[in-house]
Amino acid sequence: MDVNKLPVHVGIIMDGNGRWAQRRLMPRSVGHNAGMNRMIGLASHAKELGIRYMTVYALSTENLSRPQEELDALFNLFRKYFTRNVKKLYRQQAAVKVIGDLSALPQDVEKLLSDGEKNSPENPQFTLIFAVNYGSRPEILRAVNRAVEQGEPLDKEGFEKLLYTSGIPDPDLIIRTGGEVRLSNFLTYQAAYAELYFCDALFPEFTDRKFDKALENYASRHRRFGKIEE
Ligand code: FPP
């Protein structure tokens, strides 16, 4: 793989966990567990390749209206990840960051997630960003309201400092698994020039090899950012 053509930041919409489980006549929570394991594998693979940032859509603002049983299963996965797995990431000089409105989560989960961010190593080689109770529209509205409170006109850089993603470069590549072709409120401001890649594989079946195929496809594209080619 040509390292010069690797994305710096990859976003992943991890869709298809529920269907993966249902096809096996298992509860949806089993699919989310399989999805978490796949996410851990992909993060480690992305780090090995030299990708610097990976944002995973772990829970959208809309997902919060799912049945309590499914939400509880997801919160348990967060508890598991942020008490056990995250330490392995730290040992590899990798950090976690969380974007979204954490105030609506169970208090212990909110604390685990913010501690996970606080305890991360400084100057990491890789940052895994969890979008949790995240939606682009609430993110933009929150930033606009903060801007209004400040009462000063803002330029692009000033506005971007008010987004959850302040300090994180825009995603170069956004991958969505599970066959749907939309962004579903994921990083829509930041995705202005992102390359989009859609894939039919359900997330638990989105192997490292399939991820590499997405990277190869990305590397073959010409990014012009609205300019004409020289
Ligand atoms: C969408 O698939 C996926 C989610 C709503 C949750 C994704 C969460 C994980 C993979 C677990 C992440 C774990 C941690 C610790 C961050 P879906 O359920 O909508 O699938 P479907 O379209 O087949 O119903």
Sheet/helix structural class: alpha/beta
Low-pLDDT residue intervals, each spanning 5 or more residues? none
| Computed CA radius of gyration, to the nearest angstrom | 18 Å
Number of strands: 6
Count of DSSP H/I helices: 7
How many separate domains make up the residues?
1
The N- to C-terminal Cα distance equals 25 Å
Would you kindly provide a written description of the structure presented here, covering whatever features stand out?
By secondary structure, the protein is of the alpha/beta class. The protein has one domain (3-137, 165-219): 3-Layer(aba) Sandwich (Undecaprenyl pyrophosphate synthetase). 42% of the residues lie in helices and 16% in strands. It has a six-stranded parallel sheet with strand order 3-4-2-1-5-6, sandwiched between helices. β3, α4 (107-118) and β4 form a beta-alpha-beta unit. The two termini are 25 Å apart. 38% of the residues are buried. Farnesyl diphosphate (FPP) binds at residues 14-19, 28, 32, 35-36, 39, 58, 63, 77-78, 81, 130, 178.
Could you give a quick summary of the protein structure above?
With 230 residues, the protein is of the alpha/beta class.
Which helices and strands appear, and what pairs or packs with what?
Blueprint: E1 9-13, H1 17-23, H2 28-49, E2 53-60, H3 68-91, E3 94-99, H4 107-118, E4 126-134, H5 136-150, H6 156-160, E5 173-176, E6 195-198, H7 208-219
Parallel strand pairs: 1-2, 1-5, 2-4, 3-4, 5-6
Helix pairs in contact: 1-2, 2-3, 3-4
